Amino acid sequence: MAGLALTNAVLRKLGETDCETLGNGWLAQPVNALSSLAYSLIGIAIILSALRSSRPQGGPLIYAGCLIAVGLGSVAFHGPQLSGSQLMHDLPILLTVLFMANHDLSLLQPRLGQEFANFVALTLAAVLLAVTVPAVVAPLTIAVAAGVIVAEIVIYRRHLRHVPARHRRSGWVVIVAFAVVSGASWVLGRTDSPLCEPDAWHQLHGLWHVLSAVGFGLWYWWAIANVRDWAS
Q: How do residues 69-98 score in pLDDT, each as one tens digit?
C-alpha cells in the first residue's frame, strides 16, 4: 500500500506546472490532454501529403511519426498519467527537434553523410539517454531546439534552401511569428502565471499545444515539402 501511495503521489505531479486542475479518471487534465491530439493530426496530415507526392520519401514519414508520437505521449501525460508517461511525453519531443536539427545540419554540412543514417544514430543515442538518465531529456530538448533556431537563421541568411525570393521572407516571418506566439502561450500557461485559470475550459497550455503543432507543420512545409516541390 505504501508503494502504491508513493507511485500515485509521483504521478499526481505530472502536469502540475501546466495550470489546469488535476482531476480523476482517464483525463486528469481534459483540455491539455485533448489539445495534445493536434500534434498527431498534423503528423497524419503530413503522411497524407507525403503519400500524394509524385516522389514520396522516407523523411516526411519519419517526421510525421515523431509528431504522432508527441501527440500520443502528451495525451498519456495529461490524461491517464500511467507509469512511464513522463518518458512518453519527453522522448518524442526530443526526437522531433533532433530530426529538425539533423535536417538543418545536412544543409549546413553536406559532408556529414547520409541524413537518414545520422538520424538513426541520434535516435538510438536519445533513447539510451532517456532510459538511463531521463532527467536530462527536457533540458537537452531545449538545447537542441535552440540549436535549430540558430541553424535556421544561418540557413536563411545564406539562402541554402532553394526557395523563391518572394516566398523566402514571408515564409520565414510566418514561422517565427508562430514560434513567438506559441512560446508566449507556454510561458503564460504555467501554473505560476497571473493568467492561469485552473478550472477554465480554455487553457493557455492547450493553446500552446495547438500553436506549436501548427508550427511544426509549417516547418515541414517550409523546410521539406515546398523545397522539394520547387526543386522538382
A: 999 999 999 999 988 999 999 999 999 999
* pLDDT, tens digit, 9 for 90 and up, residues 132-171: 999 999 999 999 999 999 999 999 889 888 776 667 777 7
- 83-111 burial: b if 16+ Cβ within 10 Å, else e: eebbbbbbbbbbbbbbbbbbbbbbbeeee
Q: Residue 119: what residue type?
A: F
> What CA–CA distances, in Å, run from 14 to 29, 128, 151, 166, 205?
10, 22, 32, 45, 14
Q: What is the pTM of this model?
A: 0.89
The string of DSSP codes covering 141-206 is HHHHHHHHHHHHHHHHHHT-S---HHHHHHHHHHHHHHHHHHHHHHHHTSTTSTT--TT-S--HHH
